[in-house]
Amino acid sequence: MGMNKNTVLGWATMLMLLMGVVLMLMGGFKYDEVAGWGFGTVGAGFFAIAWVFNALKGRV
Question: What is the Cα–Cα distance from 58 to 35, expressed in whole angstroms?
C-alpha cells in the first residue's frame, strides 16, 4: 500500500476530526467544571488543524 503525501494528509485529517469529536464529547459529558471548557476548546482546535490539513491536501 503506497502512502503518498495526499494519503497521509487524508488519514491525518480523519484522525484529527475523530480526536476532536472525542475531546469535545469528553468536555461536554464527563467534566462538569472548568476542565470541560478546556477539553471543548482543544477539540475545536483539533477541528481547525484538520481543516488546514484538508486545505493542504492537493497542494503539497
Answer: 37
Q: Domain map of the chain by residue range? A: 5-56
37, amino acid identity: W
Per-residue pLDDT in tens (0 to 9) along the chain, 60 residues = 677 888 888 888 899 999 989 888 888 888 778 888 888 888 898 889 888 888 887 776
Task: Please state, in angstroms and rounded to a whole number, the distance separating the CA atoms of residues 27 and 34.
Answer: 9
The closest of 19, 22, 23, 15 to 40, measured between CA atoms, is 23
pTM (predicted TM-score): 0.72
